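In the current project phase, we have settled on a layout for protein records. A sample record is reproduced below.
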Amino acid sequence: MAHDLGDHVAAERLTREQIRAGDTRQLSSAPFVSLGIAAEERGDLDQAESLHTKALERARRAKSRLGVAVALGNIGNNALARGDRDNAAKSFRESLSLAQELGDPEGIAIGLSNLALVAHWDRDEETALRRYREAFDTARSVGFTGGIIWSALGVAAVEVEDDASTATRLLGAADALLSETGRVLGHQERRLQAEVKQHAQERLPATAFRAAWAEGRRIGAVTLLSETLRA
């Protein structure tokens, strides 16, 4: 799942200046992760793939399993953006496995959410919901709000065709948590959010959509996900 983004243009400029100022052979993978994400935000998937691959190479050279896990997740996101779900799932599984070995709950929640999204695009909604349930439980156990937000958006995507009201409540709840925490969605999450919102608005009268959105903001993501995933 994508990392939080602030002013990615300024971040990219700063990172390039840091690279120019130092010996790139000694760099960690982190600057290339930042540049790769910035390239994705511009829609330059080829450049992003190259940068994420460099991040992976440097993480492996430094024997940083966390760095490898992050790079693999980003490579998976890039593949998913290209529509290559098989390679995306492969990278996501490797990233998740490393996060599990490291005992990194945030990385585990991200990996599970990423695999859930692949299952959703594959129309395997049963697997998607199972993965989102696991991701939500993991994220909630450590108070990882990013994982809770991504789970809410993902479950909304699964639910919207059969239950647009529930999907809209989940969107509203995610929006409230985004506002509360100051988190910013990555490009994959923004795409998913926009698609689910459009589908919900096509299925609900405007007044019903606004009411469900407001109700979701009031109830909150944790309560709604707990109810929806155990229904």
Observations:
- The two ends are 26 Å apart (CA to CA).
- The domain at 104-231 is CATH 1.25.40 (Serine Threonine Protein Phosphatase 5, Tetratricopeptide repeat).
- The chain has two domains: 1-94, 104-231.
